[in-house]
Design goal:
Blueprint: H1 11-16, E1 18-22, E2 29-33, H2 38-58, H3 73-87, E3 89-93, H4 105-113, H5 117-129, H6 136-144, E4 165-166, H7 167-170
Antiparallel strand pairs: 1-2, 1-4, 2-3
């Protein structure tokens, strides 16, 4: 039987924040973030509208009108990164710079505001996971499940890898 907690978000954790493990296996780090709250969505949508207006002013003679649904991916990352930095991100742990020193939360937010694609994706993954129940049983089931069949074709048939954990399940 499935527990209701699998489908219900803990609103307190969404607003207060939670540390979430992200990144590919062997390159994991932790982001402390609030969830994707109404404030995040409001700021994200406003960022997209501003970018549409800017692009439409710059491209008047091109005959194309930008809308939030039709923005270049780099602009979408920029809008998402700014909203995550301004509304969600509270901390970063386990991520170092080129000089092997820890990245500060302000430096991480600066990179998000620049629309760095991988960092925006990991920050979004973390924020979207805040408030959801995750337990070891679920992760063990994924690790122990049979990989999907590739119909007898050669190729990688490896187990799915889970990278989305809270610091509580990572210990």
């Amino acid at each position: 039987m499935v527990s209701l907690s699998e489908f219900v978000i803990d609103r307190d954790r969404q607003s207060q924040g939670e540390e979430i493990k992200v990144g590919p296996e062997g390159l994991e780090f932790f982001i402390t973030t609030r969830g994707l709250t109404s404030e995040y969505h409001r700021v994200h949508d406003l960022n997209q509208v501003r970018e549409c207006r800017r692009l439409n002013r710059e491209n008047k003679l091109q005959g194309f009108t930008y809308t939030p649904d039709y923005l270049p991916i780099d602009i979408k990352n920029l809008c998402r990164g700014k909203a995550l930095a301004d509304c969600c991100i509270l901390g970063i742990r386990g991520l170092t710079g080129k000089d092997k020193t820890d990245i500060s939360v302000e430096d991480f937010k600066t990179l998000l505001r620049q629309g760095q694609p991988a960092l925006c994706a990991y920050a979004y993954e973390a924020a979207s996971g805040v408030g959801w129940e995750r337990d070891n049983d679920t992760e063990d089931a994924v690790k122990n499940s049979q990989p999907p069949s590739n119909g007898g074709l050669s190729g990688d048939n490896s187990q799915p890898k889970t990278t989305h954990q809270t610091s509580e399940t990572a210990h």
